[in-house]
Design goal:
The protein is mostly beta strands and about 400 residues long. The chain has a single domain, classed as 6 Propeller (Neuraminidase), CATH 2.120.10. The chain is globular, with a radius of gyration of 20 Å. The termini are far apart. It comes from Microbulbifer spongiae. This is PhoX family protein.
Length: about 400
């Protein structure tokens, strides 16, 4: 069991929803709605030589290992550790503020239920010290990515045939609940449009679709109703304009037509991956063709922000999980490639923000900023703290540095 101090603190940080009217409810979700800035992380400078953790970082940045698969997390002293052991194969993640000024980082486990699966959470004190770790979802399979909601819950997605979406409580106070209305398919990630009250979802199939979910109003807690609504698939014309087609049967069983095949006239996307919403735009990646897409939610127009096949300097390949900085820069994690997190600014300029060396058989997952955007979390899904290389079971890192100064207005 956790020590009494930990249990007391977890009780104190319990957070409820302030409802849909409080969409701008904390710095962890500022990047969803903050205006985009012209100056940003593409100007951090060249990466230094690998440090003792095998990370190449810009000058002035530091790193540490927060968690390693199968190990208890270190608190304020190496001999003081959490009772919970970190899961294997960490994937998508996000952060959530706590009432005392700390924060929580949640992380999916991309493996089958008997070996882990589900979602884990690590709770940080305001000074960044690990305070607790615990599971918030279990008995699920290949939890790949997902997305945060404006009411401080985590939507965890199963990347399996007829996969489901579960809404999880990062604070560990409520049991996770399945959200069948979001469809049964090989889910990758989900993003919430905080202005128009809709959700967007990616599908990790070679002939996957790009989906939109229109909630059926608000639920009893004044949040977007994820219990009922309309799931739609995108049909994109030659000018990039999207027509949304209603999916006839969002929750097919094994003997029924898979979700993505119910609308042959809808547009296919080759391996949908990470997705993020900010300030009227949805960004998502497709790994099959190494593209980064941008949807203008007001115009319903889709464009290609980056295409490795046509880029003059295709430094970004293996596009996967994404997040957005407080200054509007898009951070794209590589699955393979050069094992980098690459920044794309609003002018289309690219630059590596960091690189993991010696783990070429792994992938970078779960990039997410702390609520105050002073720290960046991410994982090497098959990295190993003990044995080195990319054949391990996963490491989760924290990078600190002058993010605030770089992103200052």
């Amino acid at each position: 069991m956790s020590d009494p101090h930990t249990l007391t603190r977890r009780k104190l940080i319990r957070t409820g929803s302030a409802g849909l009217a409080a969409l701008a409810l904390g710095p962890s979700l500022l990047a969803m709605t903050r205006p985009l800035q012209a100056y940003g992380l593409v100007q951090v400078g060249d990466l230094e030589a690998p440090n003792d953790l095998g990370l190449r970082l810009p000058l002035g940045f530091r790193s540490r290992i927060v968690a390693a698969a199968g190990q208890r997390l270190i608190k304020d002293r190496w001999w003081r550790r959490t009772s919970y052991r970190w899961h294997i194969y960490p994937d998508g993640g996000a952060t959530f503020p706590t009432q005392d000024g700390g924060w929580i980082y949640v992380s999916n486990s991309e493996t089958i239920a008997p070996l882990g699966g589900g979602v884990s959470a690590v709770c940080f004190r305001p000074d960044g010290v690990v305070d607790d770790a615990y599971r918030i979802l279990g008995s699920t399979n290949i939890n790949c990515a997902g997305g945060p909601t404006p009411w401080n819950s985590w939507l965890s997605c199963e990347e399996v045939d007829f996969g489901r979406v579960f809404e999880c409580d990062p604070y560990g106070q409520k049991a996770a609940e399945e959200r069948p209305a979001l469809g049964y398919f090989k889910h990758e990630a989900v993003a919430v449009d905080t202005l128009l009250g809709q959700l967007f979802l990616t599908e990790d199939e070679r002939d996957g679709r790009f989906y939109r979910f229109l909630p059926d109003g608000l639920d009893s807690q004044n949040r977007l109703n994820l219990h009922a609504g309309m799931l739609q698939a995108a049909s994109v014309d030659s000018q990039g304009y999207v027509t949304w087609l209603n999916v006839p049967n969002p929750t097919p069983n094994l003997f029924q037509t898979p979700t993505r095949q119910q609308l042959p006239e809808s547009t296919t996307f080759n391996g949908g991956e990470g997705i993020w919403y900010t300030d009227g735009f949805v960004y998502f990646t497709t790994k099959g063709d190494n593209r980064v897409w941008k949807l203008d939610t007001n115009l319903n127009q889709l464009s290609i922000l980056y295409d490795a096949a046509t880029a003059s300097e295709p430094i970004l390949t293996g596009v996967d999980n994404i997040t957005v900085s407080s200054g509007g820069d898009l951070l794209v994690a590589e699955d393979g490639g050069d094992m980098q997190i690459v920044v794309i600014d609003q002018e289309g300029n690219l630059a590596p923000l960091l690189q993991i060396v010696g783990q070429d058989n792994s992938e970078i997952t779960g990039p997410a900023f702390s609520p105050d955007h002073s720290r960046l979390y991410f994982s090497s899904q098959r990295g190993s703290e003990v044995f080195g290389g990319g054949s391990g079971l996963g490491i989760t890192y924290e990078v600190t540095g002058p993010f605030s100064e770089i992103l200052a207005l």
